[in-house]
Amino acid sequence: MRRALIALGLGLSVLGSAVITEPAHAASAVVVPLAPTVTAAQQVARFWLADGAANLRNATPYTVQTAVGGERLPADIVPDGPSGSIPPLEGPTSPEGRMPTTLGKVFFIGSDLQPHWCTGTAVHSTYRNVVATAGHCLLDIEAPAGPLAKWVFVPDYSEGMTPFGLYVGKQGVAHYDFDDIRDFDRDYAFVNVYNGVVSSAPDMLTNVGKLADNVGGQGLAFNQPLAPAADVFGYPAGPNPDGTQPYTGETLGRSTGSTFAMKVTGLRADQPIGVDSPFTGEGSLGSPWLTRYTSDSRTGYLNGITISVSDTDGDNRYDTGVSPYFDGELYTVYRNAIRLWTGSIA
Q1: Distance CA 302, CA 305 (A)
Q2: Fewer Cβ in 10 A, N or C end of the chain?
Q3: Residue 93's pLDDT is what?
Q4: Beta bridge mates, 264
C-alpha cells in the first residue's frame, strides 16, 4: 500500500470554541486514499445509488473481528497527557424524540468482493466533512494491501433510503501502528467525505451540501477519566453465541451503560475499555460511544468506538462493547483529518 505519513508536532488547534494544546508525544498518522478524484468519486456514488440503491439494500453486516474474549478490570485508566475536547455541532432541528442524524452506515466492498456495512458518525470538523468509525472499517485487515473499496457514508440510513444524501470518502486517516502492526489500541479512523449527493435521474448526481451542515457533528473527548456512562449508537445484527438474534441491523439502536477497563484475548491491545451494551458485533463495528449525550440536541462527545464485542459473564450473550481508549494519539489522527477540504462531486 502506498502511504503518506504525516508527523505532527507540538502546536495549538482551534476549532469552534475549543483551544487544545497538542500532546508533545504526537505520533504519526497514515493517510489512506479512497476516491481521490471527482471522476472516481462519481463512479463510487453511482455504484451505490444505481437501480434504486440496490447495492445499499443488498449489503450485509461486516463480520471481521466481531467478538473477543474479555475480562472486566477494577482498575481505572490513567490519562497519558492533558485532557481535551472538541464541542459538538448541532444540526438542523428535527422532530423531538428522533435518534441523532449524525449516525449512519458506512458501506464498502470487502475482501470477498461483496458489499458490507459498519456504523459511523459525523464529527465536528473544520470543513464539516469528517466521519469517525473503526480502523478496520477503513483498512482491509483480511488482505492488508490497502483500504476497503468504494467507501461511502449514509447518515440516518434505513432500508435503502438516503434522506440526507450519500457521501463518498475521499481519504481516510488512521494511526500508523494500526496500519503497520495491527495494534488494536489504535483501531480508529476518520474519513474525509465529499459533499453529499442524491440520484435525481439515471446517471445524474445532485449536490446536497456538506455533511455536518446537513446533520451536525458529534464532539470529541480524549485523555479523559473513564466516564460514568456512555450512550452507544449502532446498527447491530447477527446472533449471540446462544443463537438468539435480537437485532436485525435495519434500524439505528441505542444502549446506555457504564464504562470500565478491560483485558481482552484475541486482539493485540494493551489498554482497551469496555461499556455495558447488549449489541452484537456484526453491523455495530464502528459504533460511537457518546458521553454527556443530551436528547434535546442529540449530541455528545465521542469517547469510544466499538471495535468488537464480548461475553464477559459467560452466559452466551454479548454484554460488552470494546473500544480503544481515546488518548492524545487519537487526537493527533483526528487533527490531521480535519484539515482537508473536499468539495462537490456533482
Answers
A1: 8
A2: N
A3: 66
A4: 70
Which residues 6+ apart lie within 8 Å of 163 measured at CB? 155, 156
Q: How many residues does the structure list for the chain?
A: 346
Give residue 312's pLDDT band: very low, low, confident or very high (50, 70, 90): very high
Name residue, grid cell 470543513.
Answer: 127
**Integer-rounded Cα radius of gyration of the chain:** 18
Reduced to 3 states (helix: H, G, I; strand: E, B; else coil), residue 247 is coil
| Rounded mean pLDDT, 37-42 | 97
| Residue environment code for 39-54, b if the CB has 16+ CB neighbours within 10 A, otherwise e | ebbbebbebbbeeebe
Q: Is the pLDDT of residue 17 over 50?
A: no
**Domain limits, the chain:** 4-337
Contact call for residues 104 and 154 (beta carbons, < 8 A)? yes
How far is Cα 120 from Cα 153, in angstroms, rounded to an integer?
A: 7
Average pLDDT over the chain reads 90
- Tell how strand 115-123 and strand 60-61 pair up: parallel
- Unique residue bearing C-alpha cell 434504486: 52
pLDDT band at 98 (very low <50, low <70, confident <90, very high): confident
Q: What is the pTM of this model?
A: 0.92
pLDDT > 50? residue 60 = yes
Question: Cα–Cα distance between 15 and 265 in angstroms, integer?
Answer: 38
Average pLDDT for residues 40-45, to the nearest whole number?
A: 98
Which three cell numbers mark 43?
A: 463512479
> CA-to-CA distance for 96 and 189, rounded, in angstroms?
31
Nearest to 62 by CA among 105, 27, 32, 28: 105
User: Residues of 184-195 as b/e, b for ≥16 C-beta within 10 angstroms?
Assistant: bbbbbbbbbbbb
Q: List, in order, residues 6 or more apart from 64 with CB less than 8 Å away.
A: 110, 136, 141, 142, 285
- Distance separating alpha carbons of residues 222 and 303, to the nearest angstrom: 7
* Torsion angles phi and psi, residue 24, rounded to 5: -65, -25
Q: Per-residue pLDDT tens for 122-139?
A: 999 999 999 999 999 999
Q: Which of 167, 136, 148 is nearest to 286 (CA)?
A: 136
Cβ–Cβ < 8 Å for 323, 273? yes
